[in-house]
Amino acid sequence: MKIADSIESLTNAITQWREQGLSIAFVPTMGNLHAGHISLVKEARLKCDRVVVSIYVNPLQFNEASDFAAYPQTLSEDQNKLGSAQTDLLFLPNNEIIYPDGQASISKVSVPVLSDILEGECRPGHFDGVATVVNKLFNLVRPDIAFFGLKDYQQLLVIKKMVNDLNMPVQVVSMPTQREADGLAMSSRNSRLTSEQRTQAGQLYKVLIWLADECKTTTESIAQLEQRAMSRLDEAGFQPEYVSLRDALSLQSVDHPEGEVIALAAARLGDVRLIDNLILK
User: Fold this and answer.
1) pLDDT category, 266, cuts 50, 70, 90?
2) Contacts of 79 (CB under 8 A, 6+ apart)
3) 239 membership: H or E segment, kind and range
4) CA 133, chain centre distance (Å)
5) Is 91 helix (H, G, I), strand (E, B) or coil?
6) How are beta strands 171-175 and 145-149 bridged, if at all?
7) Do 167 and 197 reside in the same domain of the chain?
8) Which one, of 223, 225, 224, 243, lies nearest residue 233 by Cα?
């Protein structure tokens, strides 16, 4: 596995592959890799001739300095996992590469409407940071296909809209959320949970399953269902931020749980913020 820590070394590798007519897949990450990340790499391996993975903890998408400071970094372990998954190149940019003149003066990419609801409402500016850094990474790597997990569902829709709106020549592919035995969605933040919190954490997904079952038979309104789900999270020891039933394609509010609807939730256990979702059909 090659390692590129500069734009020059990355460009040299990409140019060489392009001259050989090889296709390129890309998996952008923030490191502290788990089985969910590796599933993306393995799928990328099947779809393209070469696989590029980036590790960069993007400060522009964090609206809490403490969350950014606490984000786990495990580069040595990550390199071993990527090597075993047959990654061709690991791109390790730093802040000087991504934001050479600092974050304050960088041109930003903003995806309206989608970026302002749910996660965007709870984390103002978050999706501008995501869209900006993904745009920059796409411009540097120039992939044919980029792979993202469904756990960050709203992020996936934001990136897809950005790619479509800006006519970017990359196909965005989503992969199913990888889960622990108790249903907890795999996430780099899970490692920050205490043993007691980790025992509680699986209840987040169980509440979404409960909500999906309720939608099949209930005569209650959407608002009532959402409030009951919030109460169940509260009783399970979470500090819920939202549970919301939305149209799965637009994330707009729905009056009835019909068609393809997605249940999305965000809740805290201590200082760890967890998100999850479940598509209801």
Assistant:
1) very high
2) 1, 3, 90
3) strand 239-247
4) 13
5) strand
6) parallel
7) no
8) 243
Q: What is the CA radius of gyration of the chain?
A: 19
Residue 95 has pLDDT above 90, yes or no: yes
CATH number at residue 265: 3.30.1300.10
Q: Do 203 and 160 share a domain, yes or no?
A: no
The pTM (predicted TM-score) of the whole model is: 0.96
Do 137 and 226 reside in the same domain of the chain? no
Which tens digit of pLDDT belongs to each residue from 140-181?
Answer: 999 999 999 999 999 999 999 999 999 999 999 999 999 999
Rounded to a whole number, what is the distance in angstroms from the first to the last CA of the chain?
Answer: 41
Dump strand ranges (E) for the chain: 2-4, 24-29, 50-55, 89-91, 145-149, 171-175, 239-247, 261-269, 272-280
Q: What span, in angstroms and rounded, lies between the C-alpha atoms of 133 and 127?
A: 10
Strands 239-247 vs 261-269: parallel, antiparallel or unpaired: antiparallel
Residue 204 belongs to domain spanning = 188-280
Q: Say which amino acid occupies 264.
A: L
- Among the candidates 148, 175, 202, a domain finishes at 175
Domains in the chain, number: 2
pLDDT at 257: 74
Q: Which amino acid is at 6?
A: S
Whether pLDDT at 259 is above 80? no
125: three-class secondary structure by DSSP: coil
pLDDT in tens, 23-33: 999 999 999 99
Is residue 265 located within the same domain as residue 166? no
Q: Residues with catalytic annotation?
A: 37
